[in-house]
């Protein structure tokens, strides 16, 4: 469905729309069952389901390293982090379901390659340091976005974000700690940390989305309190926090134009390769096919478990005479 | 793609109690084949961190939801003959604030009613004068509860997994000291 050349609000009742916008302006949360414009519902289902898919696909680049973790402590941390991403996907699918999307539609859209998810998970994890760099940069960028979305006007999405932020901070901290130690470690460890930064810096900058000038949904999403800040504002927060910390750790950021602007008090970055971003979003990144293949394989290999659970529940229900829920 | 043979399981709402003496809170939902499975899913999804001592699950079909807007626009129930049979008990879950929260609302008590309208009237009468931004009525007999005797094996292990807490990760200064001392990584 495209609504680009039509006003998506043209068919809405003006009185209800005005009441809805007044509620949002007053800081109220919209809850399932409340009146909402169909475009609000559509945009939220799009955003929340993409966010849920990103959590699920995000398990794959790191999950591959669990068996190769260099110590038991690092292995426990990584298992817990990947478990959290699975749980975060569950919170988000639940939030999208409150808007009328079904789990089947969303999961099928992902498995059939119709759904988008964060571009950053389509890059390969080549060394163990990538696990740390993903925690520091990718989770660091994700948290900036998620803290913003915790203020979202839609109650279920906001609540999922509050819960996710509380848990995700550990993902960021463990990655930061790991990379800082490698950056201060042996020459081989320092090379590994720098190589990981060289490969993850731009994908992390890109994952916060197109510039505001190329983000046509943003004005309406801000007006409705879905997004509280724009992509460029969130990217600036990410940059201002991470650039000085990475430099202090003794690493070099692969952006020759990066500089601190004394006048504004902000860091300034060089141009982002948006051709690469759109290629990866549209399915032509280094790992898109492999990520979806892994997701499909997991879904297929779980089929017998789902069938067994359903059969067990049906038999137990018929034995007691209870009606299935 | 046909879903006939591979549909998702039914949805269950999850109520979690963070500590003894605190009310159960509505935290979200899980899909599960039956009640036992729903409790296991609820623990895995909502209690990977220590703050849980009890969990209840209720099939989504046993939960009636009313937002303040729906309550205001709801038509007064028409007179009807008293329902036959025993009244049904309902748990009442209320959302009382627009503040940022991890939970939709919390349990405020139980009411009885021969039907949902009666139970709703009883719940609103009990909460008269208090903020009601949204209300759930949950059929009490549909609720399945975690076993209090099993609370420790169920929820205890999360307490020992301190590496899930951000506070255990060293600050910049201690990382430099560790590095200088050659602390193993």
How do the helices and strands line up, and which of them pair or pack?
The complex is a heterodimer of chains A (325) and B (185).
Chain A: H1 14-25, H2 38-57, H3 59-63, H4 72-97, H5 103-111, H6 129-149, H7 155-183, H8 187-206, H9 218-223, H10 231-248, E1 259-261, E2 266-268, H11 274-284, H12 288-301, H13 303-320
Antiparallel strand pairs in A: 1-2
Helix pairs in contact in A: 2-4, 4-7, 6-7, 6-8, 6-10
Chain B: E1 11-17, E2 25-31, H1 35-46, E3 54-59, E4 63-67, H2 68-73, E5 88-95, E6 105-113, H3 116-126, E7 134-139, E8 144-145, H4 151-155, H5 157-160, H6 172-181
Antiparallel strand pairs in B: 1-2, 1-3, 2-6, 3-8, 4-7, 5-6, 5-7
Q: Describe it for me?
A:
The complex is a heterodimer of chains A (325) and B (185). By secondary structure, chain A is mainly α. Chain A has 2 domains: 15-272, Ferritin (Up-down Bundle); 287-325, no CATH class. Chain A is 64% helix and 2% strand. A two-stranded antiparallel ribbon of chain A has the order 1-2. In chain A, a hairpin with a 4-residue loop joins strand 1 and strand 2. The two termini of chain A are 34 Å apart. Chain B has 185 residues and is an alpha+beta fold. Chain B has one domain (11-76, 85-151). Helix content of chain B is 26%, strand content 27%. Chain B is built from 6 helices and 8 strands. Chain B has helices spanning 35-46, 68-73, 116-126, 151-155, 157-160, 172-181; strands spanning 11-17, 25-31, 54-59, 63-67, 88-95, 105-113, 134-139, 144-145. Chain B has an 8-stranded antiparallel β-sheet with strand order 4-7-5-6-2-1-3-8. In chain B, strand 1 and strand 2 (25-31) form a beta hairpin. At the A-B interface, helix 4, helix 5, helix 7 and helix 13 of A face strand 2, helix 1, strand 4 and helix 6 of B.
